[in-house]
Amino acid sequence: MHLAQPEYDANSPIGIFDSGVGGLSILRHIHALLPHEPLLYFADSGFAPYGEKPEAVIVERALSIADFLLQQNCKAIVVACNTATAAAIAALREKYPSLNVVGVEPGLKPAVALTKSKIVGVLATERTLASDKFHALHEQQAASGDVRFLQQACVGLADQIEKGELASIQTVSLVRRYVEPLITQGADTLVLGCTHYPFVLEQIETVIKSLQKEVSIIDTGAAVARHLQRLLEKSHLYHPIANKQAPLTAFTTGSHSSLRSAFKVLLGLAPEVSEVSVAPT
Ligand code: DGL
Predict the structure, then answer these.
(1) Could you say which of 164, 175, 188, 190 would form a disulfide bridge with 117 (CB–CB 3.0 to 4.6 Å)?
(2) Which architecture, in CATH terms, is 108-218?
(3) Residue 81 catalytic?
(4) Share of the chain above pLDDT 70, in %
(5) Which burial class, exposed, middle or buried, applies to 147 when counting CB atoms under 10 A from its CB (0-12, 13-18, 19+)?
(6) Residues 249, 40: contact at Cβ < 8 Å?
(7) Span 212-230, pLDDT tens digits
(8) Is the CB of 151 under 6 A from ligand 1?
(9) Which atom of ligand 1 is nearest to 158's Cα?
(10) Quick check: 151 and 130 in contact, CB under 8 A?
């Protein structure tokens, strides 16, 4: 049976989701590039972290969250999470073939263009690094040249950021444990393959500085925002009123005060935040 596809409305909001606060590192670029677009942010903090969960659980969460965002009338969805993109973007695109669904993936391609030592460190969750999608990306980029990728699963790091511990002793030592071996093995380029990690950029840079090395850090947030802009223009869903600051609203499956505080501390923003629960329909 062929189901009629819904019409999406240019006046509607863009839905952005992550396992928690990591997606705010993507939202900040979207908010800066497209200030006139209403945004709905969904933090699945009640189920974070995704990085240590089975793929089937992440697919189920992503589909339930997308259903929720579409009930809020969203015209596009940004999967602001590498782990959820790797696990669920195919299922989302299959379920909503006419919806603009934008994902994020570790920036291996820009890293290949940038590295001089031909050694690139990739920081990501266990689940992202184990995914078929990442394997395919890795194979493609490794085949295109003589670059070696050192993959580092950063177990526990997203959790620290989720707790708001950006610079605690535990976070600083986790960052050092994960970053230092990559640099000492010769990586001159580091890919932030998890949307939580830009929030510990300062800690990563401190480790690099202590080793007296020059290292480029790749965060694809700005590229994701530009890709979304192009898709909206192409599908005639760009918001028609371009000179007005649009509303920003947030939902969480965790605590609203934690998400409110994350918005304030990480981005200096103060959206209205509601606690919700979503489950498979
Ligand atoms: N922010 C997510 C990512 O980009 C995942 C963090 C987690 O929940 O483990 O992969």
Answers:
(1) 188
(2) 3-Layer(aba) Sandwich (3.40)
(3) yes
(4) 97
(5) middle
(6) yes
(7) 999 999 999 999 999 999 9
(8) no
(9) 6
(10) no
